[in-house]
C-alpha cells in the first residue's frame, strides 16, 4: 500500500476568533468595558476617556501566552490599578509601552501579573464580569448562571460576524477546531457561522484543560482523525507557537495580528485556496 507523504495536508484545524469568526467587535470590547467597569465600580476611580483600545488588544495577541482574552482584561486592570493616579487615561500605558511591558511576561501569566502589578482586583472577579459581558444577561442565565456584575440583556457575542463563507461539510478533508473558547462560548461562535452541527469529538477547547501554545490540541485532533500533517489556521502568536511545537504540517495566519508571517491571508477561504484545498462545489 502506498503511504501518503507526511508533508501532505490530511487535516484542517481552525482557531475560532479571527479565523472562523470576526470577533473584532466582541472580545476587544469585552476587555475595554471590563476595564472601565472595574476602574469605576470596583476601584472607585475616574474614567476620563482613556482605556483599552484595539491597538492594545493587537499588541497583546503578539505574545504567545495571551490566548485567553479574559486574562488580557485582568492584566490590563492590574497594570492600571498599580498606578497611583485616579485617572484611567494616566494609568494604562499607551499601546507601544504596553507591548514593551508584555515582553517581560513568560508562560505563567498569572504569576507575571502578580509579580509585576500585585493583585488589586481578583482574577476570578474579572473573568466572571467578562463572561457576563460576552454572553449578556439572557445568554448567561440560559447557562444556569446568575448575573452579579452587569445588567445588559444582550451580549457582545451578538456583534460577531462570519469569516468563513463555507460549511465544514464542504471541506474535502477532515476538520478540527482548536480554540481558547469554552464549549459554551464556542457554541455561540458556531451559531454565528452556521456550524452548529460540527462534531464535538473534533473540538479541543479550554474546557479540556489544554491551552495554546501547547501542541497537545493538534496532537489529539490528529489522533482522532487518523491524520499526521494538519494545516492549522490561526490568528495569534499562541497559534503559531502551537504549530511550531507540534512540528508537523503547516500554519497559515489569518488577519493582521501576525504581520511578519509570510503565509498570511485575509480569510480562511483564501488560505485554503493557497494550500490547493478546493471546497466542494467551487471547481
Describe the structure concisely.
It contains 10 helices and 8 strands.
Summarize this structure as a short list of keywords or feature phrases.
283 residues; alpha/beta; two-stranded antiparallel sheet; 10 helices; disordered N terminus
**Which structural class do you get from the secondary structure elements?**
alpha/beta
Identify low-pLDDT runs: 1-5
Q: Quick one: biggest sheet?
A: 6 strands, parallel
The largest sheet has its strands arranged as 5-4-1-6-7-8
Question: In one word, what is the shape?
Answer: globular
Question: What is the terminal separation in angstroms?
Answer: 29 Å
Estimate the helix proportion, in percent. 25-40%
SSE run: EEHHHHHHEEHEHEHEEH
Q: Which percent band covers the strand fraction? A: 5-15%
What oligomeric state is this? single chain
Cα-based radius of gyration, to the nearest Å = 19 Å
Residue-averaged pLDDT, rounded?
94
Tally of alpha and pi helices: 10
DSSP strand tally: 8
